[in-house]
Amino acid sequence: MTEKILVFGAGVSGLTTALVLLDKGYKDVTVIGQYIPGDKTVAYTSPWAGASILSFASSQDHRLRAIDTDTHKVFKHLADNVPESSVKHCPGIEYRDDTDPEGEDSLWVRELYREFEEIPKKDLPQGTAFGFRYKTYVLSVPLYLDWLVQQITQRGGRVLRDRPYESLQDAIDAYRCDILINCSGNGAKTLTDVRDTNMYTVRGQTVLVEAPHIMTQYYRDGEDGKTTYIIPRGDGTVICGGTMDTENFDLNPDPAISERILRNCYKLAPEINHHKGVEAYKILSYNVGFRPGRKGGIRIEKELRVNAKDGKKVTIIHNYGHSSHGYQSSWGASQRVLKLLEDTNLVAKL
């Protein structure tokens, strides 16, 4: 497969897509990004993730259900066979404050998570409507992103830091590629030949703490729409969160929000501080990241272009708009990019 492929965006979606293509036999694959693994800036979303491998799909969202199910299969393989990826099996506990499990359509995850069981009402914390236990996966984001880069380079691909581009066409012209995979995330709002008006920014604020004894992930979905979560990364650090804010664009952590997060996490699982109080956290960093939300969900779509300058045909496949589930959907979305690429009769969305 001699086509020259450019993956536009070096977040988890772009890196995973590049690896899927290389594993399929494509040889000339280059990933470019203004930011690449190792960079720490709020403009680069992937390093700030938790990142627990769950699913936020409802029972009616069959596309996202399928994408996340396929992703889980890959993470199971990594947890079972590839320890250097940092992916680990991890038990989880989730509580819901305002949802009746008999009518809630998100409980399809009993089909996805391993060892799923509802928690008896007598064992629920005060104020929660229901809860469940399960097993899924967690990973150390810095280690996992580095592992993806290593896998790409070992297969002959490249991950390059590059200047910002105003359009996909500018990148096509610069690299003379035959195929461009658009994994631009939030950039899809401003690229002049994309300008996706369905995109919106979701601000996330978290606190990274040292707590190597925490080996269970916890979640509580509150009636106020706020979610409290505790995600062990498997490397001794734990992400405490969090926010899903579409109106706050502050680049700096808000101390009041951080205080609320730490207080709520301690209430959810006081063992995080060995029951010694909120003041006992070993704080490593306060974090802000901006997730690429999109009305209508992930855009996975093929586009065929002819360059007006030289008449060269270029295939563009879009893979962006993963919001807060970039890791959870990464492998399944990339597999669908591959399907669009390989099916020459398919000019459609997946």
Automatic annotation (TrEMBL):
GO biological process, one term: D-amino acid catabolic process
Entry annotated with the keyword Oxidoreductase: yes
Family indicated by similarity: Belongs to the DAMOX/DASOX family.
UniProt-recorded Gene Ontology molecular function terms: D-amino-acid oxidase activity; FAD binding
Keywords carried by this UniProt record: FAD, Flavoprotein, Oxidoreductase
Cofactor requirements of the protein: FAD
Organism of derivation: Syncephalastrum racemosum
Residues holding FAD: T45, S46
All residue ranges annotated as the FAD dependent oxidoreductase domain in the record: 4-336
InterPro entries: DAO, FAD-dep_OxRdtase
Protein's name in the database: FAD dependent oxidoreductase domain-containing protein
Any one GO CC term of the record: cytoplasm
Pfam families: DAO (PF01266)
Ligand binding (D-dopa): Y229, R291
Keyword Transmembrane helix: no
Lineage: Eukaryota, Fungi, Fungi incertae sedis, Mucoromycota, Mucoromycotina
